[in-house]
Amino acid sequence: MQSSTTTTTPSPSPSPLQSSVSSLQTSLHLLQTSIHTLHNGVQDFPRLSRVLETRRHFELSSEAHLVAAQAHVRADIQPEIERLLSAVERCVERMARREQSLIAQADLLAARLAGREGREGTESGEGVKVVRRTTTTTDEEQRVRREKMRLLRLRRDRVAYAVERLSLQAQQRERQLRRSMAVVG
Question: pLDDT per residue over 115-167, tens digit each?
Fold first, then answer.
């Protein structure tokens, strides 16, 4: 008997299992690469969601709402403007009457002064004493009258300034109202 030793040598063709293992390893590697790529792509999602989140930074209103708001403001301002204008007109009329009154009073005083001077010059020797006494009184009256006139002028200037200031404020409010109306139109 002959004994023969046969040894099995691995066959040059891979076994079906080995090809399956190799295919599985390739698939696993591909899957790991895909997971790594997805992780890198999804990593920034929280920041992107905050960036892309819609926020209303400015309150937007419709044109109809703006028109209604302007009409409401106009309705609130118009009576005040009319009140201020009527107050200014009354003040101007009062100042004009006061000015006329002061002019008439000054004319009357000037006429009285001229009448006194004319009478005093025609009187006799006793008139000289009267003239001197009246002149001092007249000087005193003139000083008082000048002081009153000075005070009245100051008062007139203050009132004129107040009227001018009120009219400027009324003009400014009218301009603002016109500007707001222009935005609507």
Answer: 777 666 555 444 444 444 445 567 888 888 889 999 988 888 888 888 888 88
Q: Where are the alpha helices (DSSP H) in the chain?
A: 16-42, 45-52, 63-122, 125-184
**Long-range contacts of residues 105-114, Cβ cutoff 8 Å, at least 24 apart:** 106/149, 109/145, 113/138
CA distances from 170 to 95, 96, 117, 175 (A): 19, 20, 50, 9
- pTM listed for this prediction: 0.33
If we measure between CA atoms, which residue out of 158, 165, 91 comes closest to residue 150? 158
* 165's tokens: 């200031």
The tokens describing 102, both together, are 């002061």
CA distances from 164 to 16, 140, 153, 175 (A): 109, 36, 16, 16
Torsion sign across C-alpha atoms 115, 121, 122, 124: positive
Q: Diameter of the chain by CA atoms?
A: 198
Report whether 167 contacts 61 (CB < 8 A).
Answer: no
**Which of helix, strand or coil describes residue 13?**
coil
